[in-house]
Design brief:
It contains ten helices and eight strands. With 282 residues, the chain is of the alpha/beta class. The protein has one domain: Aldolase class I (TIM Barrel, Alpha-Beta Barrel). It has an eight-stranded parallel barrel, surrounded by eight helices. Helix 3 links the parallel strand 2 and strand 3. Helix 2 runs parallel beside helix 3, helix 5 runs parallel beside helix 6 and helix 9 runs antiparallel to helix 10. The longest helix has 23 residues. It is globular and about 60 Å long.
Length: 282
């Protein structure tokens, strides 16, 4: 069933929902299959950097059709739309996206607030939810080979600024910088759980962790215990697919079997992460 982000996250009072970006319909089906098996709400995302390359206007109607038949709540999320991509945001809303992430984190706070307010006003008129971001998260969204250092140098989200941002924008969810990065880490990231706990204490809106690939299960569990309610996981799915490409039998032309193998591996990885995020793996 199709829901917006706020509706999906409202179901996560003591756990976190998984948000998984896709590049094609097979990835969407793997997400839905896993969510159906676990009977857990889920978020299907399309990154703004991929929107045109995957021909989103042609792909999205099929995804929405599949979401309609799902027995669990599903949101369709535009991930990391930049302040200069307001036209893409409008197109996504017209297509039926139920959630928009506007990432103005690289702007001065006042400008981030202003552009987020504009996106909130537009999106709410479509009954779509908005995720904002405050505090830059390292790495490039949608690029799984960035070999990220554990980003101790990345500034964590300022708690007072987060409170101001939430109060002035009316966002439905907030991505915060807690020590994670987009991409693949070359060592364990240093998560600042105090930042999560302090921001969670001043708001009742869901907090979001980006860059979960490579974060330890224990760190994920502690982050959820301290207030994270949405977790983005994508690089691990790209890594899974490319590992299979590299191992592929070079004498076989059975492309359908190859696709099925990758889809099964995606489903396994997604199921594992969803169980972790929702505390089912304890």
């Amino acid at each position: 069933m199709i829901n917006n982000l706020a509706q999906v996250l409202k179901l996560q009072s003591q756990s976190a929902a998984g948000s998984f970006n896709i590049l094609d319909l097979d990835m969407a089906f793997s997400i839905l299959d896993s969510a159906e098996e676990l009977q857990l709400p889920v978020i299907i995302g399309i990154a703004s950097r991929h929107f045109d390359d995957i021909r989103a206007p042609l792909l999205v109607p099929s995804i929405l059709k599949a979401m309609e038949t799902a027995t669990i709540p599903v949101a369709l999320h535009l991930d990391h739309a930049a302040p200069d991509q307001l036209e893409m945001i409008q197109k996504a809303l017209d297509l039926g996206f139920t959630s928009i992430m506007i990432d103005g984190s690289l702007l001065p706070l006042c400008e981030n607030i202003a552009v987020t307010q504009k996106v909130v006003e537009l999106s709410h008129s479509y009954n779509a939810s908005v995720e904002g971001e405050i505090g830059g998260i390292a790495g490039e969204e949608g690029v799984a080979d960035t070999d990220q250092d554990a980003p101790e140098e990345t500034p964590y989200t300022n708690v007072a600024e987060a409170q101001q941002f939430i109060n002035e924008t009316s966002v439905d969810a907030l991505a915060i910088a807690v020590g994670t990065a987009h991409g693949i880490y070359n060592c364990e990231p240093h998560i600042n759980f105090d930042v999560i706990k302090e921001i969670s204490a001043i708001t009742n809106i869901p907090l979001v962790m980006h860059g979960a690939t490579g974060v330890s299960d224990k760190a994920i569990q502690i982050a959820v215990e301290n207030g994270i309610r949405k977790i983005n996981y994508f690089s691990g799915l790209l890594q899974t697919a490319m590992n299979e490409v590299r191992l592929c039998n070079t004498t076989s032309n059975d492309y359908l079997s190859f696709k099925r193998t990758i889809s099964n591996q995606w489903s396994s990885a997604i199921t594992e992460q969803m169980k972790l995020f929702s505390n089912l793996s304890k």
